[in-house]
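Re: the multi-chain job from yesterday

Posting the exact lines I submitted so nobody has to dig through the queue logs.
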Amino acid sequence: MSDTKKTGVFNDLYQLFFAKHWPVWVGAILAGALNVLMFGISGPWSGSAGYSSWGKNIYDSMNMLGFDGTQSFLENKWAMLSIMIIAGSFIGALMSKSFAIRIPPIGEIIKGILGGCLMAIGATVGIGCSIGGFFSGVPSLSGGAIMLTIGLFLGTIVAVKYLFWEMEHLPKISTGKAYTFLGADEGKGNWQKWLGIIVAIALIFVAYNFFQTGHNIIAWFVIIGGLLGLISQRSIFCIVRAFREPFMSGDADGAKGIIAGILVVLFGFVVIKTMNIGAGDTMARAIEMKAVHNNFWLRGLLGGFVFGIGMTIAGGCAVGTLWRMGEGQIKLWFAALGFVLVSPISSKFIVPWVEDIIPFSMRFKNYLPDYLGYSGSIALVLLILFVWYWFATWNERTGKFSQF
Amino acid sequence: MEAKETLDTKGLSCPMPMMKLAKAMKGLNSGDVLEMLGTDPGTKSDLPKWCEKSGNKLLEGKDLDGGVFCFYIQKK
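And the result, structure tokens for all chains:
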């Protein structure tokens, strides 16, 4: 009898976490809370820094482009976080028996690579991606992040128009031979659950080893990355969906979810910045300026625009790409490859050129509280979030901007 | 179940399956049934919501072997 009860309890838990996707707002709020925690431990969540670190490590290993002395990916917390997001998502996909190697038609793979390359250029030019520039940048009260967000919107709209054009005029790009391997058979696939448990134990073991060797920050980032991957995979936490869907299906759940997450991050970041948590009095300004970069206004706008096009064509933003890799979506593996390989090249060759042609008055650090005070800055961010919420909800009801 | 057309989105990832579904539904007459095959996990959440919003009727959804799912949708 007690065994039956025990099975029932675990079955309920399994059904709760893995039978269906979670609402986006649940995932976004949890991801927001983990972002605050990361700021408390080390710094606001950055997505593109992980891709860039991987790229530099690859070029360094081949003695190319002069990236000697690059910090190893084992010591870089963002590189570690990104790999653990893939691992966490892999666990989520396995536990829900939804893992499979999904190979799309060749045209989609090329779109993945191009999207990844554009994300790399956008993130390096704009100094931030959908995570560092938006999900961390806006709650950091950075003026540049707001311009980057406007760029993301504009880039997404342009790329959505392209996708519809492509479907009408070049349908062969998304048709052709596709393959799926290792997917669970109907009513079976328990091997995926067992493998998920094994990978989860391995992830905990990796974190434990880092703790044992005194690498506490990396160890926490292993755990946080795993959780972020799991949460993102289960809740379809993806910034590109929040920006794109009002102009496609009209669904507002993604936008509303991300807004809920941003509110959590805003609350946590403002507490950390105003209380100077993690800093003595002399470091207070450094803490305030975390996730505030030299990108106000044109540089952020331009970078966000290019990133917005890239993430929409790739079908995954900085974090959406990672957790879809964990689900076995090969298109996003190629998007990540483009992102990883082009990030260092863009930093080395494109960014200096951009800095030459954009005057400093259009690429400086704008910390909103310096101009509006904390109250005014928070009010501005809340107003922007409210306008976005209103637009997404109104559009969902009226279908004014949605295509289907 | 009898379907007038089959839409194969296997291997495609978000947002292509939903875009192709919307396009395929436009080409059908009222009452016609479309069979959709796919492998993108997100589509399994998106599709029922879209049917509810668009007024098209989701007749059946089931998992097949190899991680493939199948939906039958009737045009309103």
